[in-house]
């Protein structure tokens, strides 16, 4: 009933719900990346961009995919 009053038809409630969880997922992903960046002895982004470290870029990419899957599963 409250969702009908606040968001109108059910599809608007579902769109708002998806938007909220998307933002939450992105925030969790950024927080996880920052924690991993702080845990490493060097700056990941600087090492990848300025140092052109391809191996590190592949590892960080794989880690990002894994974190995204875990966050998506947790939110779902």
Distance between the termini: 23 Å
- The arrangement of helices and strands along the chain is HHHH
Mean pLDDT: 82
Q: How large, in whole angstroms, is the Cα Rg?
A: 18 Å
Count of distinct strands: 0
Using the alpha-carbon principal axes, give the shape: elongated
Sheet with most strands = none
Concise synopsis of the structure shown:
The chain has four helices and no strands. The protein is mainly alpha-helical and 76 residues long. It has a domain of 52 residues.
Structural account:
This protein is mainly α. The chain has a domain of 52 residues. The protein contains four helices and no strands. α2 packs antiparallel against α4. The longest helix has 30 residues. It is elongated, with a radius of gyration of 18 Å. It starts with a helix and ends with a helix.
Protein topology:
Elements: H1 2-7, H2 10-39, H3 44-49, H4 54-75
Helix pairs in contact: 2-4
Task: Spell out the key features of this protein.
76 residues; mainly alpha; 4 helices
